[in-house]
């Protein structure tokens, strides 16, 4: 299939494009490059444009004779979403609504959506299944949930087929070293830990060491980005117009911040000092996924998501690209 990936020059989207191509599909990157990187497009066709530009999206879909869309474009910094809600609703909801209409204009009825575990909010039970109540506690999560609701409305009204993939913590890098994680600013734990090992930061800020967990630090579910990419491929190949599916994508086990730091010390050989700071408001003690539905219905298997492989592949890329993508 020919697949247009909005935000395909970003972290997850670029890895998905690579996996699609290796499986025989044709990825086309649609990205405004505000946060994506031209190098991450790996030479695939790149159309520079905004998701909210209905005419431009429809033209790209028609020009490349697309069969499906994978939507990754958007803003992702939770703390920023709380400070600037209008910006997040515009980028994560209003723009994608224009994209859905562009898909209708071009006759495209298959969409894979990059959603988030942030739609769940404070966990009522661990592990978190897709049946868990959706009560997001920040603007980022609310925009993701709102777009999921829009997809269902478009399915009922127009026969859209969609799969919403609720990521937990995407991590790691292409094992061959072609792609990696380069957000600016970087808010994810593992690249910030590795930045200390590279000497780019003096110490890691650890936000709270008094949580009700075995070592007092937060527990999160880290899933390798290549395993995420494989789930997108499986979802695409299973999707038909008129379908509406939701899947969690996680590792089904959690690791604490202290465990991640300890593994990074082993992999890098660097001491990685830590400075304890106060807890951040809204941080849950533990977030761990149940991914049984994706395993059962899509046949999804995790090959790369043990903590050592996640940290080792991330370290390989960051060591080779200490300043990130250079453009």
Walk me through the structure.
This protein has about 325 residues and is α/β, with parallel strands linked by helices. The protein has two domains: about 1-170 and about 220-250, NAD(P)-binding Rossmann-like Domain (Rossmann fold, 3-Layer(aba) Sandwich); about 190-220 and about 250-320, UDP-galactose 4-epimerase, domain 1 (Alpha-Beta Complex). The chain has ten helices and 14 strands. It has a seven-stranded parallel β-sheet, sandwiched between helices. The radius of gyration is 19 Å and the shape is globular. The model has no long low-confidence stretch (mean pLDDT about 95).
Keywords, separated by commas or semicolons:
327 residues; alpha/beta; Rossmann fold; UDP-galactose 4-epimerase, domain 1; 2 domains; seven-stranded parallel beta sheet; three-stranded mixed beta sheet; 14 strands
Would you spell out the secondary-structure blueprint of this structure?
Blueprint: E1 2-6, H1 11-22, E2 26-31, E3 46-48, H2 54-63, E4 68-71, H3 78-83, H4 85-106, E5 110-116, H5 139-158, E6 161-167, E7 169-171, H6 189-197, E8 204-207, E9 219-220, E10 222-224, H7 225-238, E11 244-249, E12 255-256, H8 257-268, E13 274-277, E14 286-287, H9 292-298, H10 307-320
Parallel strand pairs: 1-2, 1-4, 2-3, 4-5, 5-6, 6-11, 7-10, 8-13, 9-14
Antiparallel strand pairs: 9-12
Helix pairs in contact: 1-7, 2-4, 4-5, 6-8, 6-10, 8-10
Helix content: 25-40%
Helix-strand sequence = EHEEHEHHEHEEHEEEHEEHEEHH
The proportion of residues in beta strands is: 15-25%
Radius of gyration: 19 Å
